[in-house]
Amino acid sequence: MTAHADADGVVPDEGATGAGDPEASASATPRPSRRALFGAFGAGAAGLTAGAIGGALLAGSGSGSGTASGGRSGIVPFRGEHQAGIVTPAQDRLHFAAFKMVDGAGRDELVSLLRDWTEAAEILTQGLAIGTGLEPSNALLPPDDTGEAEGLNAGHLTLTIGLGRELFTGRTEGADDPFGIRHRLPDAFEPLPSFAFDLLEAAQSGGDLCVQACADDPQVAVHAIRNLTRIGMGRARLAWSQLGFGRTASTSREQDTPRNLFGFKDGTMNIMSDEAADLDAHVWVGDDGPEWLRGGSYLVARKILMTIETWDRASLDEQERIIGRTKLVGEPLTGGGEFADPDLAALTGGEPAIDIAAHVRLAHPSQNDGIRLLRRGYNYVDGSNSLGQLGAGLFFISFQKDPAAFVRVQQSLKPDLLNEYIRHIGSGLWAVPGGVGPGEFLGQRLFD
Ligand code: HEM
């Protein structure tokens, strides 16, 4: 059951969606908005331009006037100085999606898509449904919203949107400039090189746009991606997507350090949301970057398969040697508790106490010109294979102000002992514009 938002787009209170609420029963009253446009969409949309399809789904739903799908608790504001989903507390669930612009789509389609996604993201992150929710004004038409989040609250949903390099350069060498933004390509936005041991699959790599949907509830994250995909129809198509569970990093000190599927605490030395100087130094694009990207970042995603069955046969000593930390407490092998800095110079019996090829040594800022990455990854399991092995791994996500920072650390990891147990099978890099101001659409400054 749905409830109307008031004139400011604020639903009175969480209980307003419940049975017996006079507002809720009023929502059954036929609403004339969008009947003609949406009718055309439901009938096959043959006569509609791509932009009009998304517009039809959103028409009349202006900022926050979508219907309430389940109450107003757990809201992370979509608009702000930076996009949410980077330093906002990491939720437990992920649905990450990459999109490709359809052939023939140009600047108008890209701009209208970003406008429609901005409007939809603002609605969805408030726990509201798209358009008139489950109740179209004509029961012969499909509902505006796909419906599976009805009754659920906002679940701290964040939607973080990035732009792929090929939007600027075109797909092929010498391609024309379909979106008119070639001159806006930042110098730093170089493609990732290929790394030692990469086994990347094209079917889960790249994309013109990415949407990182994070939420407390997987259904809320999936609902968001599904509806954004639907709104994008005719302009962008879903290229690949990944579900994740169990965040593998903290971005706030209030959160406990989670564990990855090797059973180790992950995210201990991550950049936290209160480390403002380090966020400026390592994560946010500043005045030295292009104007349209300031306050933004670059998102690297790496789908890393973990051969957990082999790992599970390694002794505890071996596992701890590989990582360079203890498994239970997560402290460096040189002691001092979980949050102590590893003592990379310490010796035990004449040998380095932390192996020269241990993961935390090679990834440590002191081995990488002081570089720190903001990691925000998730565990994943994509079923199992015929050998009885889980398709398990880490959907690694990091944010950095320059993709070269990720490249530097990943190249340092070439001798990593961990490499025997992992394979990078997917990859992507996107520029994540800064936060969306009042009345703006995401990425607007790119087109000014
Ligand atoms: C499946 C693959 C991986 C696993 C299981 C893994 C696991 C871990 C663990 C257990 C830690 C120690 C706790 C912590 O500080 O978070 C750690 C630290 C770290 N990892 Fe990874 N990691 C993986 C891949 C990567 C990749 C691909 C990168 C970047 C290219 C990376 C960069 C880092 C960094 C920067 C640190 C913190 C080092 C420090 O400041 O002390 N990791 N990782």
UniProtKB/TrEMBL annotation:
<dbReference type="InterPro" id="IPR048328">
    <property type="entry name" value="Dyp_perox_C"/>
</dbReference>
<dbReference type="GO" id="GO:0046872">
    <property type="term" value="F:metal ion binding"/>
</dbReference>
<keyword id="KW-0408">Iron</keyword>
<keyword id="KW-0732">Signal</keyword>
<feature type="domain" description="Dyp-type peroxidase C-terminal">
    <location>
        <begin position="257"/>
        <end position="436"/>
    </location>
</feature>
<comment type="similarity">
    <text>Belongs to the DyP-type peroxidase family.</text>
</comment>
<keyword id="KW-0479">Metal-binding</keyword>
<dbReference type="InterPro" id="IPR006314">
    <property type="entry name" value="Dyp_peroxidase"/>
</dbReference>
<dbReference type="InterPro" id="IPR048327">
    <property type="entry name" value="Dyp_perox_N"/>
</dbReference>
<dbReference type="Pfam" id="PF20628">
    <property type="entry name" value="Dyp_perox_C"/>
</dbReference>
<keyword id="KW-0349">Heme</keyword>
<feature type="domain" description="Dyp-type peroxidase N-terminal">
    <location>
        <begin position="83"/>
        <end position="245"/>
    </location>
</feature>
<dbReference type="GO" id="GO:0020037">
    <property type="term" value="F:heme binding"/>
</dbReference>
<dbReference type="Pfam" id="PF04261">
    <property type="entry name" value="Dyp_perox_N"/>
</dbReference>
<dbReference type="GO" id="GO:0004601">
    <property type="term" value="F:peroxidase activity"/>
</dbReference>
<keyword id="KW-0560">Oxidoreductase</keyword>
<comment type="function">
    <text>Involved in the recovery of exogenous heme iron. Extracts iron from heme while preserving the protoporphyrin ring intact.</text>
</comment>
<dbReference type="InterPro" id="IPR006313">
    <property type="entry name" value="EfeB/EfeN"/>
</dbReference>
<dbReference type="GO" id="GO:0005829">
    <property type="term" value="C:cytosol"/>
</dbReference>
<keyword id="KW-0575">Peroxidase</keyword>
<protein>
    <recommendedName>
        <fullName>Deferrochelatase</fullName>
        <ecNumber>1.11.1.-</ecNumber>
    </recommendedName>
</protein>
<dbReference type="GO" id="GO:0033212">
    <property type="term" value="P:iron import into cell"/>
</dbReference>
<feature type="region of interest" description="Disordered">
    <location>
        <begin position="1"/>
        <end position="32"/>
    </location>
</feature>
